[in-house]
Design goal:
The complex is a heterodimer of chains A (113) and B (112). With 113 residues, chain A is an all-beta fold. In chain A, 0% of the residues lie in helices and 50% in strands. The chains are: A mainly beta (113), B mainly beta (112).
């Protein structure tokens, strides 16, 4: 195990609803990144937080938003859910730095119906 | 924008066969390169990484990868696979913003 935990593990939501996914990062890690992995594809970068500030964002609309807390845990919020938002959402924490590896959680499987 | 491609979507091998999984990336500057593996039912974990020095990198479980800058490649190899190597393998590049860009993944099935 990596020490990164995500909740919930599975979630079913209706189109138009809002969802909050949570991630507890590994102890000592101040950087958290979120990824969306659709079926058959690699993880796509959503955004990254470093010390409670957004520190980079991928090609996702503003209805994808996030937070990082003082203990470096993080939330991913998605508003106005669409069917195409159905995917595995991964959280990864790292200590920062160009060569530092990312430690992944097990993911949250979101299904939008 | 950075992109990472992996040559094969699904590879099927018999035990003891040799493995090579291709990975190419688009960025021309200094890069940090990673291979992650996800075994069934487990978190994905780091196999190996390259950020400087010897372009031939050795990782866990007998895996190695070679960084060839002129070809923008970072192929993963193992001389003799085992059934327990059945997993999904992801190549990743860490860009200037220190964000990972992942390839689509290659599923490896090793037949006993």
């Amino acid at each position: 195990e990596t020490g990164v935990t995500q909740s919930p593990t599975h979630l079913i939501k209706t189109r138009g609803q809002q969802v909050t996914l949570r991630c507890s990062s590994q102890s000592g890690h101040n950087t958290v990144s979120w990824y969306q992995q659709a079926l058959g594809q690699g993880p796509q970068f959503i955004f990254q937080y470093y010390r409670e500030e957004e520190n980079g964002r991928g090609n996702f609309p503003p209805r994808f938003s996030g937070l990082q807390f003082p203990n470096y845990s993080s939330e991913l919020n998605v508003n106005a859910l669409e069917l195409d938002d159905s995917a595995l959402y991964l959280c990864a924490s790292s200590s920062g730095g160009a060569s530092s590896e990312a430690f992944f959680g097990q993911g949250t499987r979101l299904t939008v119906v | 924008a950075q992109s990472v491609s992996q040559h094969n979507h699904h590879v099927i091998l018999s035990e003891a066969a040799s493995l090579e999984l291709g990975c190419n990336y688009s960025y021309g500057g200094t890069v940090n390169l990673f291979w992650y593996v996800q075994y069934p039912g487990q978190h994905r974990q780091l196999l190996l990484k390259y950020f400087s020095g010897d372009p031939l990198v050795k990782g866990i479980k007998g895996f190695e990868a070679e960084f060839i800058k002129s070809k923008f490649s970072f192929n993963l190899r193992k001389p003799s696979v085992q059934w327990s190597d059945t997993a999904e393998y992801f190549c990743a590049v860490k860009d200037y913003g220190q964000n990972f860009v992942f390839g689509p993944g290659t599923r490896l099935s090793v037949l006993p």
